[in-house]
Amino acid sequence: MARLAPRTEQPHGSPLVDRYGRIHTDLRISLTDRCNLRCTYCMPAEGLSWLPKPELLTDAELLRLARIAVTRLGIRTLRLTGGEPLLRRGLPGLIAELAALGPELSLTTNGIGLARTAADLKAAGLHRVNVSLDTLRPERYAEITRRDRIHDVFAGLAAARAAGLDPVKINAVPVRGVNDDELVDLVDFAARHGYRMRFIESMPLDAQGAWERDRMITADEILDVLGRRHRLVPVGRHANAPAEEWRIAGTDTVVGVIASVTRPFCGGCDRVRLTADGQLRNCLFATTESDLRALLRDGSDDDRIEAAWRVTVARKGPGHAIGTADFVRPDRPMSAIGG
Ligand SMILES: Nc1nc2c(ncn2[C@@H]2O[C@H](COP(=O)(O)OP(=O)(O)OP(=O)(O)O)[C@@H](O)[C@H]2O)c(=O)[nH]1
Ligand SMILES: C[S@@+](CC[C@H](N)C(=O)[O-])C[C@H]1O[C@@H](n2cnc3c(N)ncnc32)[C@H](O)[C@@H]1O
Ligand code: SF4
Ligand code: SF4
């Protein structure tokens, strides 16, 4: 992790800055903690005890927070995630209202249901989509996700591309002994269909606490395997994005690697997160949250919510401490944070 020197707090009305000088322009919103898959690196076979409905932000509450974020706090990009965000009722309507606020709008999804909804989401104002797909083999997909739905994902990817969502990225989490023999196949599949492939180092955020560092496929291993098949030309990182990119020499194909564990990118972090139950998190690995839902429901005005938001970001730590004695797993698993 890059070393960061603390700075003093910023005055009211300024961008959303933390004490290390990092400006936050990206908001990730979890629309639900529920999911229709049970990926083994994410949650147990029996699922989790989902948040009760009254605890979830309503569309109106969520839109109010998004408006405060965009109009007062300098948020420029919104990502909708979950759980599985396509399970949220009335999603096209919500997207239309978020799009009207003017930010770049993207969605991270497992792709199930995307075949049905991609055109409507695009028409509502969604710009782009990231779809999770860890394998190309139906039986293996059913083992990893515990559901036999790979053909829905293939159809969802094709529908996203046909609808003009651009780019369409594929996220895969390689796990040793599970799907680590498919890295080249996944890249070739994505290139053939016009999708952009990314590999993600698995993180200790699974609900069951079974993450093992040795089962994670590192960025170095991924690049080594791909580099034996293709010549890779470093492209770098777009602004503060987690993915570092490589281009396959002589082609337009770009591959991304999100190396949260072995090559952390916390020094350039520009992200803040809102959970489906209205808790603001200043880091994926935060161990504390700020209860914006309580403020929404006790009649607080926008100034008060803006101030709470700024305090939460100001308190952000330098980054996660995975692999050190200081590391503490957050209570919320990935699926309830929003990834
Ligand atoms: N450590 C860490 N991982 C992140 C962060 N943001 C996203 N990721 C991980 O990156 C993987 C892909 O996330 P996506 O939801 O597709 O978002 P993204 O990669 O930021 O999306 P792009 O804007 O398309 O680059 C997931 O496993 C996320 O948990 C972050 O701020 N910190
Ligand atoms: C939590 S999911 C939520 C959105 C949607 N359900 C999906 O799977 O795309 C967001 C991203 O996090 C990734 N993810 C889930 N558990 C992870 C883990 N333990 N480590 C790294 N990435 C993980 C998924 O592969 C997915 O790309
Ligand atoms: S990674 Fe996404 S699709 Fe898989 S169980 Fe977690 S939330 Fe669901
Ligand atoms: S781990 Fe926290 S600080 Fe690091 S990039 Fe992710 S959200 Fe930002």
From TrEMBL:
<keyword id="KW-0501">Molybdenum cofactor biosynthesis</keyword>
<feature type="binding site">
    <location>
        <begin position="271"/>
        <end position="273"/>
    </location>
    <ligand>
        <name>GTP</name>
    </ligand>
</feature>
<dbReference type="InterPro" id="IPR040064">
    <property type="entry name" value="MoaA-like"/>
</dbReference>
<keyword id="KW-0004">4Fe-4S</keyword>
<feature type="binding site">
    <location>
        <position position="269"/>
    </location>
    <ligand>
        <name>[4Fe-4S] cluster 2</name>
    </ligand>
</feature>
<comment type="function">
    <text>Catalyzes the cyclization of GTP to (8S)-3',8-cyclo-7,8-dihydroguanosine 5'-triphosphate.</text>
</comment>
<feature type="binding site">
    <location>
        <position position="41"/>
    </location>
    <ligand>
        <name>S-adenosyl-L-methionine</name>
    </ligand>
</feature>
<dbReference type="InterPro" id="IPR013785">
    <property type="entry name" value="Aldolase_TIM"/>
</dbReference>
<comment type="similarity">
    <text>Belongs to the radical SAM superfamily. MoaA family.</text>
</comment>
<feature type="binding site">
    <location>
        <position position="132"/>
    </location>
    <ligand>
        <name>S-adenosyl-L-methionine</name>
    </ligand>
</feature>
<comment type="pathway">
    <text>Cofactor biosynthesis; molybdopterin biosynthesis.</text>
</comment>
<keyword id="KW-0949">S-adenosyl-L-methionine</keyword>
<keyword id="KW-0456">Lyase</keyword>
<dbReference type="InterPro" id="IPR000385">
    <property type="entry name" value="MoaA_NifB_PqqE_Fe-S-bd_CS"/>
</dbReference>
<keyword id="KW-0342">GTP-binding</keyword>
<dbReference type="InterPro" id="IPR058240">
    <property type="entry name" value="rSAM_sf"/>
</dbReference>
<dbReference type="InterPro" id="IPR013483">
    <property type="entry name" value="MoaA"/>
</dbReference>
<feature type="binding site">
    <location>
        <position position="83"/>
    </location>
    <ligand>
        <name>S-adenosyl-L-methionine</name>
    </ligand>
</feature>
<comment type="subunit">
    <text>Monomer and homodimer.</text>
</comment>
<feature type="binding site">
    <location>
        <position position="39"/>
    </location>
    <ligand>
        <name>[4Fe-4S] cluster 1</name>
    </ligand>
</feature>
<feature type="binding site">
    <location>
        <position position="79"/>
    </location>
    <ligand>
        <name>GTP</name>
    </ligand>
</feature>
<feature type="binding site">
    <location>
        <position position="28"/>
    </location>
    <ligand>
        <name>GTP</name>
    </ligand>
</feature>
<feature type="binding site">
    <location>
        <position position="35"/>
    </location>
    <ligand>
        <name>[4Fe-4S] cluster 1</name>
    </ligand>
</feature>
<keyword id="KW-0411">Iron-sulfur</keyword>
<feature type="binding site">
    <location>
        <position position="266"/>
    </location>
    <ligand>
        <name>[4Fe-4S] cluster 2</name>
    </ligand>
</feature>
<dbReference type="InterPro" id="IPR010505">
    <property type="entry name" value="MoaA_twitch"/>
</dbReference>
<feature type="binding site">
    <location>
        <position position="203"/>
    </location>
    <ligand>
        <name>S-adenosyl-L-methionine</name>
    </ligand>
</feature>
<feature type="binding site">
    <location>
        <position position="108"/>
    </location>
    <ligand>
        <name>GTP</name>
    </ligand>
</feature>
<keyword id="KW-0547">Nucleotide-binding</keyword>
<keyword id="KW-0479">Metal-binding</keyword>
<dbReference type="InterPro" id="IPR050105">
    <property type="entry name" value="MoCo_biosynth_MoaA/MoaC"/>
</dbReference>
<dbReference type="GO" id="GO:0061798">
    <property type="term" value="F:GTP 3',8'-cyclase activity"/>
</dbReference>
<feature type="binding site">
    <location>
        <position position="169"/>
    </location>
    <ligand>
        <name>GTP</name>
    </ligand>
</feature>
<dbReference type="InterPro" id="IPR006638">
    <property type="entry name" value="Elp3/MiaA/NifB-like_rSAM"/>
</dbReference>
<feature type="binding site">
    <location>
        <position position="283"/>
    </location>
    <ligand>
        <name>[4Fe-4S] cluster 2</name>
    </ligand>
</feature>
<keyword id="KW-0408">Iron</keyword>
<protein>
    <recommendedName>
        <fullName>GTP 3',8-cyclase</fullName>
        <ecNumber>4.1.99.22</ecNumber>
    </recommendedName>
</protein>
<dbReference type="InterPro" id="IPR007197">
    <property type="entry name" value="rSAM"/>
</dbReference>
<dbReference type="Pfam" id="PF06463">
    <property type="entry name" value="Mob_synth_C"/>
</dbReference>
<feature type="domain" description="Radical SAM core">
    <location>
        <begin position="19"/>
        <end position="242"/>
    </location>
</feature>
<feature type="binding site">
    <location>
        <position position="42"/>
    </location>
    <ligand>
        <name>[4Fe-4S] cluster 1</name>
    </ligand>
</feature>
<dbReference type="Pfam" id="PF04055">
    <property type="entry name" value="Radical_SAM"/>
</dbReference>
